[in-house]
Amino acid sequence: MAALFLRIARRMAALLATVIVGGILTAALVRSSPGFDTDERLMDLRLDRQSRADILAEHAADHDVVRFYARYVGNMFRGDWGVSSSLNAPIRGLIASRLPLTAELMVFGLAGAWVLALGLALAAVRYSWWSHMGSALSVLVLSIPSAALAVLIFATRGPVRAIIGLILFPRLFDYLRNLLADAYSHPHIVTARAKGVGPVRILIGHVFPVCAPQLLALAGVSASMAFGTAIPVETLCDLPGIGQLAWKAAVARDLPLLVSLTMLITLLTQACNAVSDWAAAGRAGARS
Amino acid sequence: MKSRRIAGTVLLAVLIAVPFSGALFPRFSYAVQHREFTDAAPSLRFPLGTDDLGRDRFARLLYASRVSLLLAAAASLAALVVAALLGGIAGYWGGWCDRCLTRAIDLMLSLPWLFLLLAARALLPLNASPVTSLIVTYSLLALLGWASPARVVRAGVRSFRDSEFVLQARSEGLGEFRILWRAVLPNLRPILLAQFWTSIPVFILTEANLGFLGLSAGEPFPTWGSLLRDLQSPLLVRPEGFAPVAAIAFSVCCFRLLSPKGRLQA
Asked: What is the spatial distance between Cα A37 and Cα B83, in angstroms, rounded to a whole number?
């Protein structure tokens, strides 16, 4: 038990260190970029010299990366995530109001993609016709930029919530098909099939346990993929989620918002990966 | 498998030949604006019509194909050099160097790539020239796209590290860098080639997504991604507006025919 707690503590420390390093790197990169002092508002020709100087002075506090980051993290622990310079609103509120929509899109997308990919992969393992059909569909979807696919579905008044699922499906299908084909060729599964054990029992009792570590790892990676897909989908379909917020922050060079989003996304993706790793390790331990 | 590769090579040759042979007949430049033909429908003179500024969509598509294909290949090559260097060091020497690099690779692979690119692309000044923004976009693809090939290279180098030919080279007194350069690297060629062909379509699709979001090359320079920006108003799009999508899909299919099967794309 103590060893388990130690492992969890180590993993949590690594997770925290990764998030902090990710945040510092983003802050340092943004600070040293040629566009750092550029502000969209400066393009407004109506501004006089004093207004321009005031806008530039707003950036002065961010010039020292370490001080900026230390102050930022300190404030974050007190619940103050700063204010978005482009949207002029508290970052915490912006993220809190947009997170549910992104979470809903991701859950729908992931569920749809997994059901479709797993279903087709299972059919493909048993019948070559389904394998060819799945491959063709997978190649077709993979060949179209996800943003263009989102527009196609949006323009044909298709279900917007299904877009992420459709984009993710081929990325899962190829891997799942290979994984399941490999699992079904294991000698004990071939023997079980020869003895007439039902397909559902084989799948649940023999195939899934064999593939569980890889499936859990894939689940962690697919959550990260789902967020990557949410950016163009939310931006193009005008859905006010975290993906659209990330795009707006990038376009407006909003340093505080970009750093917050980087830390949040690093934390979420690393947490997903850590949970899937723990589950996979636990599963492997239980089997051995 | 062989027929698949032959088909891929032939289709790729066609894909490269069409836009590059277009350079021999520069009927219209990608930037010339025919103000009397704005938003024109497809005709003999303008096979794909014109955009809202009167620019020939076909000429722009041909030019964009050249730019996107060349730069995606260049970015893939650059990413591969970084991947070979880092993956080679991590795989060959192991230890803390391997642990740090593996952690960095895992971090890079776990983060959504498009978000990283968005954040990195935002570092450019607003008044960057079109050529600068184009070069920076593809350089970023190369700089951020090394992680996936690096993991494969690392695994490859690790498998060669204790092989007989490396042991023999070591027993003959060859230095570690020389062994890496003369014995390990030539054996990595199939892995590097496979990663090269796999990375190109990934970069093409990522640039397309960035262009769609308005974060690729600046106007008037056309790339496949920047041409897709016309689709941002989906309800106003005409069928010929999807020509860049078809070009991208065709090229990605060609590259997929040449690359190994079953690779997970982030």
From this structure: 33
Check if A261 contacts B (Cβ < 8 Å).
Answer: yes
Instruction: Determine the Cα–Cα distance for residues A187 and A189; give it in Å rounded to an integer.
Output: 5
Question: Which structure tokens are listed for B224?
Answer: 């496949």
Contact A224/B110 with Cβ under 8 angstroms?
yes
Residues of A in contact with B266 (CB under 8 A): 171, 221, 224-225, 228
Out of A140, A146, A225, whose CB is closest to B209?
A146
- Contact between A145 and B118 using a beta-carbon 8 Å cutoff: no
User: Whole-prediction pTM value?
Assistant: 0.79
CA distances from B27 to A59, B22, B65, B219, B259 (A): 48, 9, 16, 20, 35
Which residues contact residue A273 at a Cβ distance below 8 angstroms, ignoring those fewer than 6 apart?
A217, A220, A221, A224, B106, B110
- Residue pairs between chains A and B whose CB atoms are closer than 8 Å: 153
**Chain A environment of B231 (Cβ under 8 Å):** 148, 151
How far is A227 from A143, CA to CA, in rounded Å? 19
Range(s) of the domain holding residue B60:
2-258
Q: Which of residues 191-220 of A touch B (CB under 8 A)?
A: 220
Cα→Cα distances A49→A45, A175, A258, B39, B243, Å: 10, 58, 28, 40, 46
Q: How far does B167 lie from chain A, in Å, by closest CA?
A: 34
Kindly list the residues from chain A whose CB atom is less than 8 angstroms away from the CB atom of residue B214: 251
A257 interfaces chain B, CB cutoff of 8 Å: no
Assign B204 a pLDDT band (cuts: 50, 70, 90).
very high
Q: Tell which wins on pLDDT, A95 or B259.
A: A95
The answer to whether B119 contacts A262, with C-beta atoms less than 8 Å apart, is yes
Selection from A98, A62, A18, A52 nearest residue A254 by Cα: A62
B180 is a domain residue: yes
Could you tell me if residue B39 is left (phi over 0), alpha (psi between -120 and 50 degrees) or otherwise beta? left
| Cα–Cα distance for residue pair A178/A147, rounded to 1 Å | 27
**Is B265 part of a structural domain of the chain?**
no
Across the range A86-95, mean pLDDT stands at 86
In a domain, residue B59? The reply is: yes
What percent of chain A clears pLDDT 90, i.e. is strictly above it?
A: 7
Residues of chain A in contact with residue B111, where contact means CB-CB under 8 angstroms, are: 22, 224, 265-266, 269
Which A-chain residues 3-32 have CB contacts (< 8 A) with chain B? 18, 22, 26, 29-30
CATH of the domain at B93: 1.10.3720.10
Instruction: Count up the domains in chain B and report the number.
Output: 1
User: Is B264 among the domain residues?
Assistant: no
Average pLDDT over residues A142-152: 85
Count of CB atoms situated within 10 Å of the CB of A16: 12
Query: For B201-207, what is the mean pLDDT?
Result: 90
Any CB–CB contact under 8 A between A148 and chain B?
Answer: yes
